[in-house]
Amino acid sequence: MPKSERQAQILTIAQDLFATHGFHHISMDDIAERAEVSKPILYRHFPSKLDLYLAVIDERGQALVDSVALALVPVREAAAAAAASGNADRDVDGYAVVHAVVRAYVDFADGCGVAASLLFESDVTRDDVVRERVEEPNRRNAELFAAALATFTDLTEAQTLTVARTATVMARVAASDTLRADRDADTARAADGETTMDTAELVAQFAWRGIHGMVRREVPSEGR
To answer: How far apart are CA 126 and CA 129, in angstroms?
Structure first.
């Protein structure tokens, strides 16, 4: 098997084992056995279990960043169109920005299943190196979010980033709740069987009611 394919195979297997059993309960022997490779071959690709774990974190983290970036494409296009039409202050749907980010997190968690727990519920975050890598995609997503918020608020750059980081934390909470709901299907339904409000919609509405007060307002003309 070519090196790139073998690494991809090992990452997929390690992701499943780490997510299901946790970092401390899985050994390189377990991974080698599941991948049907010898330990020397496994160590040739990844020098240690921590290196392998970080590689899995980086791969999942990049996938999350890509999801958020893709979700914000329509927002960026709308902002560009608004700027071209001279209505940059009014034509961007602020709620759509918030909802796009929260939805991206929730859909990522829903699509990845238990593997998403490596980013949202990692059992190794006491390690400074691991914590930094787990937080990296959220930092990058906050920057993407801040750039979108800057198109329709009057906040300073620092204030915009603070709001974006806070909203990103909300998105992470929504994603974690999605994971818990997936593990226990009963929690995804109301007690009487009625459909509950979508998690992404709920959190986006909560966040938007705070951000909405910061929306740039058109300054009235003198004398009006």
So the answer is: 9
